[in-house]
Design goal:
It contains seven helices and two strands. The protein is mainly alpha-helical and 140 residues long. It has a two-stranded antiparallel ribbon.
């Protein structure tokens, strides 16, 4: 298995679906737009600590070159972009009061820079984290 983070991200997403089925209320707007349930599921993935794996697996690009041939391929996984996953990871780390240093080491190189940017943005907006810290957490 060359990219275990992709299967881990998929399992985390499916387990988050299972966890959210215990929540009695649907995400706001999910009756009108079913995709909102998938986005809430991705937020549950981040909440449970799997944003790093999901960020690494959100987008893949591959370029090939062979005798007289060349090509490329790209693929997207999940419902969030790399930027969204990295921001969710930064929020997760900030709420746990953990520095992003260790996470940076395990992200794809271009995502590590994005994590630094997200971290700076969170530090510049302490009211955002304060509101999140005040939010009640209900566990099934």
């Amino acid at each position: 298995m060359t990219k275990p983070y992709k299967i881990i991200a998929t399992f985390a997403h499916e387990l988050a679906h299972y966890r959210l089925h215990d929540v009695l209320e649907k995400p706001p707007g999910a009756d009108v737009e079913p995709k909102l349930e998938e986005l809430a599921t991705e937020m549950a993935v981040a909440f449970h600590g799997f944003a790093l794996m999901s960020a690494n697996g959100a987008f893949e690009f591959q370029q090939t070159q062979d005798f007289g041939r060349q090509g490329w391929s790209s693929s997207f996984s999940g419902y969030l972009s790399e930027d969204s996953w990295v921001f969710a990871l930064a929020v997760f780390l900030a709420l746990r009061e953990e520095a992003p240093d260790e996470a940076r080491r395990h992200l794809k190189q271009h995502l590590a820079k994005k994590l630094d940017d997200a971290w700076k943005r969170l530090l510049a907006a302490p009211d955002l984290l304060a509101r999140l810290r005040e939010a009640p957490v209900r566990s099934a």
